[in-house]
Amino acid sequence: MKVKFGIGAVFACCVALAACGGSDNGGGGGGGGASTGGASTSSSGGGVKVEGAKVIDPKSLDNPPKGTIKYCQGKDTTGSAKALIKDFNAKFSAQGYKATLTEFPASADQQRSQFIQRQQAKSDDCDVFSSDVIWTAEFASQKWLYDLTPYVQAQKSKYIAAPLETVHYADKYWGVPETSDAAFIYYRTDKGGGAPPATWQEVYSKAKAQGGLVYQGAP
After folding, report:
1. Dist CA 14 CA 128 (whole Å)
2. Options 3.40.50.720, 3.40.50.620, 1.20.210.10, 3.40.190.10; which CATH number does 11-180 get?
3. N or C: which end of the chain has fewer CB within 10 A?
């Protein structure tokens, strides 16, 4: 069986926050090795530019400052975030790193509101935030995110192009893909007869004639 045909996707991304931060050992929430300065947004030739944003230096990540990394996301309904934090601490605590989890409400609107309140108050509650990709432009324009372009460019081959594009704004990358809730059509190559279906009409006709197709249809 092969995964060949994408139906649709909803993406989430992780962003490093450029607000005030803190750590147990003075490591600094939001990451080290960043250039300082405010950000400004301008329009030129029909395009938008965000200038003066703090930039992550990939070289600084070779030896990041010790301390606590405060991770924020929506309600952890599956337990996956708690497991992630547990695994991180088990692996890296001996090296001087610790991660904590702050859960926001399940509602996307409430998550956005709580995040904005913290940023406006220059809170250090969150160093890394799991963000809906539709907020990328707003948060970047408000100077709340680090410019991760140098880091992403160095790691670009590790990411799928479509999810990565969702954190691309004003010619810069402001996060990295975390979750891609993509739905796929699976088909059996011994029944599919060559190329996968390219349209819904082909899906129906091939399924009716040969079977061997399955997909998440209810949504």
Report:
1. 7
2. 3.40.190.10
3. C
Q: Which DSSP string do the residues of 24-63 spell out, in sequence order?
A: TTS--TT-SSB-----EEEEETTEEEEES--BB-GGGGGS
Which two three-digit tokens encode residue 31?
Answer: 């990451």
CA distance 203 to 87: 41
Q: How far is CA 146 from CA 1, 75, 76, 209, in A?
A: 41, 24, 25, 52
| pLDDT tens digits, one per residue of 5-51 | 333 334 567 877 764 433 444 333 333 333 333 444 454 445 788 88
For 39-50, what is each residue's pLDDT tens digit?
A: 444 544 457 888
Tally of residues, the chain: 219
Q: Quote the pTM value.
A: 0.69
Measured CA to CA, the distance from residue 182 to residue 10 in angstroms comes to 6
Q: Where are the domains of the chain?
A: 11-180, 183-215
d(CA 20, CA 163) in angstroms, rounded, equals 28
Cα–Cα dist 161/74, whole Å: 25
State the amino acid at position 79 in one-letter form: G
Those residues whose C-beta lies under 8 Å from the C-beta of residue 122, and which sit 6 or more positions away, are 19, 20
